[in-house]
Amino acid sequence: MNFNKSSNIEDFLASLENDSYPMKPCSKDDISKLVKLSPTRTLPKTYLDFMNKAGNGIEFLVGTDYSMKYIFDLKEWAIELLEENNSIKILTDNQFIFMMHQGYMFWFFNLNDGDDPAVYCYDESLELEDFNKVSDTLSDFLISLYD
């Protein structure tokens, strides 16, 4: 199953659900805890939709830390990774780390970028002056991980 740029996260997740694709949703309590992670800013609708359906596991993200089990530690781990690599990059309160892979790369979005924000990445193997923009939207990013 392939999705294109016009696909949104709701259609994508509904399609996976219809195909009985393995994913574990967040509970209402989990979503409430997520919202409290960023009390002064609103988490994007796309992110909350994804976590609502797959926030406790989805098959195509095995090996990547993003679920409720890890979400409360990701920012701290990202800061540690930057420090270990003597990076001059700094994470702000506006940047929400939503995913980390194998401890050497992480992804984030800016909390003030709307309901389907752009996604940025840090990869310790790349020597870039700034964070790398990897997708114009969170929906496209998540769908591309599946495709």
CATH superfamily: SMI1/KNR4-like
How far apart lie the N and C ends? Answer: 8 Å
CATH architecture title:
3-Layer(aba) Sandwich
Largest sheet: 5 strands, antiparallel
Give me the strand/helix succession: HHHEHEEEEH
Number of helices: 5
Helix content: 25-40%
CATH-assigned fold name: SMI1/KNR4-like
The structural domain count equals 1
Poorly predicted runs: none
Strand order of the largest sheet: 1-2-3-4-5
Shape: globular
Number of strands: 5
What does the average pLDDT come to? 89
Brief digest:
With 147 residues, this protein is α+β, with helices and mostly antiparallel strands. The chain is 34% helix and 16% strand. It has 5 helices and 5 strands; from the N terminus they run αααβαββββα.
Question: If you had to describe this structure to a student in words, what would you say it looks like?
Answer:
The structure is a single chain. This protein is an alpha+beta fold. The chain has one domain: SMI1/KNR4-like, CATH 3.40.1580. 34% of the residues lie in helices and 16% in strands. The chain contains 5 helices and 5 strands; from the N terminus they run H-H-H-E-H-E-E-E-E-H. It has a 5-stranded antiparallel β-sheet with strand order 1-2-3-4-5. The radius of gyration is 15 Å and the shape is globular. The mean pLDDT is 89. It holds the Pfam family SMI1_KNR4. It comes from Lysinibacillus mangiferihumi.
Which key terms come to mind for this protein?
16% strand; alpha+beta; SMI1/KNR4-like; 147 residues; 5 strands; 5 helices
Question: What is the topological layout?
Answer:
Blueprint: H1 9-18, H2 28-37, H3 45-54, E1 64-65, H4 74-84, E2 95-101, E3 105-110, E4 119-123, E5 132-135, H5 138-146
Antiparallel strand pairs: 1-2, 2-3, 3-4, 4-5
